[in-house]
Write a structure and sequence with these properties.
The chain has 380 residues and is an alpha/beta fold. Helix content is 44%, strand content 14%. The chain has a nine-stranded mixed sheet with strand order 1-2-3-5-4-6-7-8-9, with helices on both faces.
Length: 380
Amino acid sequence: MELTPFVVDVAQASLDDLRERLARTRWPDEVDGAGWDYGASLAYMRELVEYWRTGFDWRAASLAMNTVPHFRARIDGVGLHVIHRRGRGSAPMPLLITHGWPSSFVEMLALIPLLADPGAHGGDPADAFDVIVPSVPGFGFSDRPGRGMTRSRVAGLWAALMQGLGYPRYAAHANDIGAVISAWLAADYPDRLIALHTLMPSFPPAVIGADARPLTRAEQAFARRQERWEREEGGYNLIQETRPQTLAYGLHDSPAGLAAWIVEKWLAWTGEAGGVARRFSRDLLLANVTLYWVTGTANAANTSGPARPGASPRASRCPSGVALTSEAIQRPPRELAERSFADICRWVDLPRGGHFVAGEAPEVLAEELRAFFRPFRSAR
């Protein structure tokens, strides 16, 4: 594996072009009193875009990004961006963290030091991790995938990455599409995972065959809730799966359009009206959106590949921990999760935090990860 140091550094011309485009934003109209009912609020987006143009400092954001070690790895012909922060403690446990959509490594920046150096943040140095945060192909500074970049293939790249970094066995934590990739990692490389922690126990969905036990009432109720969610919330996913190229022209050409597409999800999946403004700083939201813009990956992230054509990973036998966030659609009954995760040894409700909890409440997630993986340290 080729591994070279990498520095986040964006050309000034790209930032100048961004500000010019923001200044020329052609704003749409809005249904009277719509608020967030039809998507991103016009009043909020006007305010956010003006701050993006006149107040947000990408250079300061990139300096913060560069406080952790970045690298580029080349594996099986694919260039991967990866953060590799070594832990400070007696025996740090390697922890592979995989982000989701529409997120990036930016969401993990506040979480990384809490995990790598718990002693400096009120924790026990014995809970330290070596933290590895790769960017999924199609996101950030990783290569853009072709049609064959399935989630299962990404899992294979992760296995090779961890082997190349010197970790024959390691822990994993993930959410969103990262949870799917990690499920394939557990299915295809079960001997390499010490344990798996997920915020999305119903993702990927379980394979329920003719010989499986019937769905319980709780599972049936959750299925109906998922159907309602698909009707009310899932339109973004349908177009990204069927006509992503058509969508890409707007997202790639209009920074305001890109911000609306991404930020609306950070609101909707936070779990409360107006949550995006109260739970996340504008600088965090815009650092994530700007990363998509300056790397030109809005389309690549939307087309980064299915799980595996016509297949889902078999039930994981890896010891698994589940932490439920405030996001209702990701709170399945335990018996449904057990169809995908056969050895659930921890099932908890986080005291706060929605879909993007690593950015919203990093200290809450850090404590949960320390607690879940603690028993596996002695087993190592």
